[in-house]
Amino acid sequence: MNNQNLAIKIKDLRNRKGYSQEQLAEESKLSLRTIQRIEKGESIPRGDTLIKLTQTLGVTPDDLLEWTDIEDKGYLTLLNLGALTVMIQPMLGIIIPLVMWILKREKIKYVDDTGKKLISFQITWALTLYLVLMIASKGSYLPINFSLLNSFTVLITEFSSIGIFIIFLYIYNLISIIINIKKSQKGLKNKYAPSIPFLK
């Protein structure tokens, strides 16, 4: 790991803990100047300094030194593909990407950004679907187990505007995922809209 990547990681970990540089220095029993030099990439913490710093930040020395911001277009593609489980069950379209995001959000470039956008989009999409279904059923039930197959059944048996809208929701979700898979393969940032930013 180069000094700059390490500096970024330490600063990120400090911010996650809610520490200022002064607080980190105080908690780790290191000088403020040492913390500033590490975060500027002017020095690499070693020995006792590394141990004090990692203990305060709640990580192991290996975790800190082995961290790299690698680029993995394959994992980004899989992350987006994980959302296709929405076709089986809407909650899966949230849960699968959420697990994948948690596992690699700090390890792979763009996973944090893509995961937040994708999960927020899928939550917004699921809420819209359930709201439409509750309106259609006049609030008589909460359709948690609804799936794409159910929506085709609704469309065929009732051929209503609700059925058409539900199919449209599924098609829009599918197209959004496909577009973002192609963006990931080209190394571009993903964009999912519209969505409520549940994860920031």
From TrEMBL:
InterPro entries: Cro/C1-type_HTH (IPR001387), Lambda_DNA-bd_dom_sf (IPR010982), MamF_MmsF (IPR019109), TransReg_Diox_bact_type (IPR050807). Residues 10-64 form the HTH cro/C1-type domain. It holds the Pfam family MamF_MmsF. The lineage of its organism: Bacteria, Pseudomonadati, Bacteroidota, Flavobacteriia, Flavobacteriales. The keyword NAD does not apply. GO terms for cellular component: cytosol. PROSITE patterns: HTH_CROC1. Keywords: DNA-binding, Membrane, Transmembrane, Transmembrane helix. It is a multi-pass membrane protein. It is found in: Membrane. One of its GO terms (molecular function) is DNA-binding transcription factor activity. SUPFAM superfamilies: lambda repressor-like DNA-binding domains. The chain crosses the membrane at residues 81-103, 123-142, 162-181. It comes from Robertkochia marina. This is Helix-turn-helix domain-containing protein.
